[in-house]
Amino acid sequence: MFGLFKKKTEKEKLQEKYQQLQKESFDLSTSNRKLSDQKAFEAEEVMKQLEKLKSPSPQRGSKKLLVFRHQQTSHVMLDLFQHLVSGGVPPLSPAVAT
User: Fold this and answer.
1) DSSP classification of residue 31
2) What Rg do the C-alpha atoms of the chain give, in angstroms?
3) How many CB atoms lie within 10 A of CB 25?
4) Contacts of 14 (CB under 8 A, 6+ apart)
5) Residue extents of the structural domains in the chain
6) Is residue 92 within 8 Å of 81, Cβ to Cβ?
7) Does the global pTM surpass 0.85?
8) pLDDT digits over 37-89, tens only?
9) Based on the number of CB atoms within 10 Å of its own CB, is 46 exposed (0-12), middle (13-18) or buried (19 or more)?
10) From the DSSP assignment, how many helices (H) and strands (E) are in the chain?
C-alpha cells in the first residue's frame, strides 16, 4: 500500500527500459533482423548508462584528506623515530603535555 505512490528511481527506469528493449529485440529477431539489431544496440546503450550509475563516483576532497592524514602520520612517526635513534625521550604532544 505504501509503495503505491513511490516514484521510480533513475536506475529502476533504466532497468525497465533495458528489459523492454531486450524483449522487443527478441520478438523482432524472427521477423525483422535489422530492427532487432537496432533494439539490441539501444539496449546496450541503456546498459552502459546503468553501469555509470552503479559505479561509485569518488567523493570530492576525500583523496586530499587521505593524503593529508598520511603526511601528518608520517611526520609524527619520523619525529618519534629521530628521538628514539638519538637516545632521547620522545616529546609529548601538546594535547598530552597540558
Assistant:
1) T
2) 29
3) 19
4) 46, 49, 50, 53
5) 9-54, 62-97
6) no
7) no
8) 999 999 999 999 998 887 765 555 555 555 555 555 666 666 766 766 777 66
9) buried
10) 4, 0
